[in-house]
Amino acid sequence: MTAVGTEVDRALALVDEATVVADASALILAASENPGGTELVAVRVLEAIASRLGGRSRRTLVAPDRPNVAIRFGPDPSDERPGVLVLGHSDVVPAGSGWSADPFNPRVDDGWLTGRGAADMKGGLAAALQAMAAVHRVRPELPLELLVTVDEEDLATGILAHLDEPPAAYRACVVAEPTDLAVVIACRGAANLEVEVRGRAAHAGRPEDGASAITSAARIATWIADDHARMRRGASGLLGSGTWSVGRIEGGHGTSIVPDRCTLLVDRRLMPGETGEQARRELEAGIARAISDDGCRASAALLMEMPGFETDPAHPLVTAAVSALAAEGREPAVEAWTAACEGGFIARHHGCPTIILGPGDITGQAHQPDERVRIADLGTAARAYARLLLELQP
Fold first, then answer.
1. What is the mean pLDDT of residues 242-269?
2. CA 336 to chain centre
3. Under a CB-based contact definition with an 8 Å cutoff, are residues 358 and 124 in contact?
């Protein structure tokens, strides 16, 4: 047996699935709904878990009662050797209605852990902490860090605050979002945009005296649909193409008034390398073509941007993740994600290869009533993370 093999076996022996479930349950109890709440109670639980496992925590306040927390295992940050970064977030979407029981009272039943955040992503955080602590016990000199941001589910203010810090040298980044234990190597970004259309009010009996902002907004929406179809026709590769989608349109005052104002909220999925500002300029150009002579004016504003990323499937980070899952008896899938996550910020800011890998299903379990994660997958994730962290080290 090789030295590395011995280290892996020793680390795996320290991974306790029951403890992962208990820690994930404690995090679910620490309700951190966003918008409408605060992540502070969840951060306190994370810090307590980290302290018990031998990690050191550092808070960065983003807003009142909303701190990012960085949990480090290994040497002091002054040690400049590149380590591995694991990324997560402490907030969850609002519980909403339709639950069969209290969404913040975690339940273990028939091999599943149920509660808001079980899949997205308190289960992944608990598994990552367990793995990092196990690796630290075996290789205490290795630099490992877990960064947990606030406000991921809404405006991304936590990761934006992190970008104010100088770039650091990381060997790799693993985002512990739920991928159903697939290795996600490519992820589109997202831009949220708002289009404000200004027209001219008039009596509906003489609509030609006014300029309908709603009619202009409909023309803009048509341009968006046409440009979306154009991009999809050129789709290729794992990520396909960017997309446009109008999520909301509202305006007008009543049936007898020509509307002088209308607003559209627009989603633009970004390919790696595209920026939200590029998307805004594209939209402005489309607006100019769509309503060039109808008497209305419109402008587009960028509300939020989340960049995408793509990692070479032959990169050692990817092959190590695939190998770790295979060693755990999983058929490792290498995929792209249609959702967006904060990994693109890390890849761009720190210049490190990035993947997404975590327990739970983002489409079938997250953001839904009775959100749940398979307990066996929590254990598999923790062991796979431990294997991966050791494989990536020099």
1. 96
2. 14
3. yes
